[in-house]
Each structure stands twice: as C-alpha cells, then as structure tokens.
Specification:
This protein is mainly alpha-helical. About 55% of the residues lie in helices and about 0% in strands. The protein has helices at about 10-30, 40-75, 80-105, 115-140. Helix 1 (about 10-30) packs across helix 2, helix 1 packs across helix 4 (about 115-140) and helix 2 (about 40-75) crosses helix 4.
C-alpha cells in the first residue's frame, strides 16, 4: 500500500499527535491486560507483546531523562571509558539507522539530522510519555485533539509500479487510476 499523509506542521501539533498516540497505546495495554493470563494463542501473544509495550513504550521513556542526565554528568567526569561507551552507543545507533536506510534503498543524506533526533526529538517524546502517564494516573479522560490540516498532502499518485489491480464492476481502483491523490482528512 502507498499513502500520502500530512505530518504535523507545528511543534504543538506534533506534541498533541504523539500525546494522543501514547495515551492510546496505554489505553490499549490496559484494555487487553487480561490477555497475559489467557490460555492459547491470545495468551501467548499477550505475554509476549504487553510486557514489551509496557517496558519500551512506558517504563523506559519515563526513566530515560534521568539516564540522559546521568550521561551528561558523566561526560564531565573526565573518564575516557564514559566517552568510549557513549561513542560506541551513538556509533551503533548511527550504523543501524544507516543500515535501515540501505534496506529501504533510501539515500543517506537525511542522516545529518540524526543528532537532532537523538538529542531533541527523543527528549520531546520522553516528555510526551511522562505527560501521558500522569494524565492516565490521574484518571483524566483525554479529548480527541484532532490535528488541524494544512493541506500539504498534494502529491499525485503517478504510476504505481507492479501489476495493476482489476477494476471492480467497471470502477477503476485507486491504484489503477493515475489521477491526483485524494486529500487526507
């Protein structure tokens, strides 16, 4: 499937979108918490997925700012092992990101922004998770917070590679017509 979507245009819109996503993830974890105790395939999946979601989507992002502060503090210690460890950590992150770009046959040019992702965007996401956890702990219901569209998703579909799907009852499918993309609503 191929889709053109509109990304949030402002920091506030990004915050609200990620806050909604994070809170929704926590709601899904809570809704399906019983799956951990179920028998059969649902239980096996629940015991595998739910702890992973709790750990990687909630617990680690909540404690990560403290770990980052400790890393900054350690940088001023003068210990070469701290520098080497951080260098290896960031080197692995860069290498795995470059590898992912290569797997997708994407150019490596955007990798110049990786430090911004590691030191700015990541911190922003930590704060979003903390806000979501506090909201959930208070029991505050979350309003929908729909994103205000800017109308920037205007790219046409063009020619989509691969076999064209057949028309259904004489009506061409989106992949078989080469008209403009429908606006995302």
């Amino acid at each position: 499937a191929r889709a053109w979507t509109e990304a949030p245009a402002t920091l506030r819109a990004l915050w609200r979108q990620r806050y909604r996503w994070c809170y929704g993830t926590m709601q899904a974890i809570w809704k399906h918490r019983h799956a951990v105790l179920e028998r059969g395939p649902g239980g096996r999946l629940g015991r595998l997925v739910l702890p992973q979601l709790v750990l990687f989507q909630v617990v680690l992002p909540v404690i990560a700012p403290a770990i980052d502060l400790l890393a900054v503090y350690a940088l001023f210690s003068g210990d070469w092992r701290v520098y080497a460890t951080l260098g290896v950590f960031y080197g692995i992150q860069f290498a795995t990101t470059a590898f992912a770009f290569r797997l997708e046959r994407e150019p490596l040019r955007p990798l110049w922004a990786l430090p911004f992702q590691m030191f700015v965007y990541r911190q922003l996401m930590y704060l979003v998770v903390i806000q979501s956890v506090v909201t959930a702990a208070r029991g505050t219901p979350l309003r929908w917070q729909r994103m205000i569209r800017q109308g920037t998703a205007t790219q046409s579909l063009g020619e989509i590679p691969g076999p064209k799907p057949p028309a259904i009852h004489g009506v061409p499918t989106p992949a078989s017509s080469n008209g403009p993309a429908m606006p995302v609503s």
